[in-house]
Amino acid sequence: MWTLDGVAGTETETILPDGRIELVVHHASRPRGQAASFVTGQLISPLYLHPTGPMSTSGVRLRPAAAGAFLRIPANELTGHFASLNIQTPAHVPDPAITRAVVLIEQSAGAARMDQLTQAVNLSPRQFDRRFLAAVGLQPKAFARIVRFQAVLAAYRHRDFPRWADLALHCGFYDQAHLANEFRQFAGVPPTDFFRHPSALALLMANLSKTRASSKTYHRDLCDF
Predict the structure, then answer these.
(1) What is the C-alpha to C-alpha distance for residues 113 and 109, in angstroms, rounded to an integer?
(2) Mean pLDDT across the stretch 193-221?
(3) Residue 206: left (phi > 0), alpha (psi -120 to 50), or beta?
(4) Residue 41 is inside which H or E element, if any?
(5) Cβ(113)–Cβ(219) under 8 Å?
(6) Structural domain range at position 57
(7) Are 218 and 109 within 8 A, CB to CB?
């Protein structure tokens, strides 16, 4: 759970994809175009917020594999959208195979191979993709890419790497250009531009992510692009 209180500026703020569905309630003014309360599905591109006044907002960040079970709908129905906040009880039990797969993807900082995951959870590729999509709201590869993107943010925050090329190789990208392309898709701009004038809210929300900077270099033969 998280809360955000304060006087919003006039500049556009950015929320970055982090692999989680959230329940959001605005207690005061709210960004332009947003309802007072809603469920936000998985983000696959940056979300731009336009503040309208002082903010007082609460949120509940759902675990990836529990989102569909908690909301009692296929999580992919919400991907890229906002929906009315309508919680039904009791919640379903999360899919244990997908819960295990999410843990493995996050532990590998997004570098886990899909064939190894299907073997680890004893599912066929088709079953795995279908159940993962319904539980998490993203295909396994798409979720892994977002986890890897968040690992880049975590590594940068910890200032583990002096050069983008070193960071790219450490996080499992082919090279610096590959990192820049992925970063541009999820953040809307290349990494150098983003960190030159970062969105304060983007960094604040990224700090809530469970993703940590990986302590191991994942070579390209361990990655599934």
Answers:
(1) 11
(2) 61
(3) alpha
(4) none
(5) no
(6) 2-84
(7) yes
Q: Give, as one character, the DSSP assignment of residue 109.
A: T
Residue 196 lies in a domain: no
Alpha helices in 84-199 (DSSP H): 96-107, 114-121, 125-136, 140-157, 164-170, 176-187, 191-196
Q: Tell me the helices (H) and strands (E) count for the chain, helix number first.
A: 9, 7
Number of domains present in the structure of the chain: 1
Tokens representing 60 are 């509940």
Instruction: Return the amino acid letter for 13.
Output: E
pLDDT value at 146 more than 60: yes
Q: Exposed (0-12), middle (13-18) or buried (19+): which is 157, by Cβ within 10 Å? A: middle
Q: What is the distance between the alpha carbons of residues 118 and 100, in angstroms, rounded to a whole number?
A: 11
pLDDT band at 225 (very low <50, low <70, confident <90, very high): very low
In a domain, 113, yes or no: no
- Cα–chain center distance at 52: 25
Q: 134 and 72 in contact (C-beta within 8 Å)?
A: no
> 140-157 and 125-136 helices cross at what angle (nearest 10)?
60
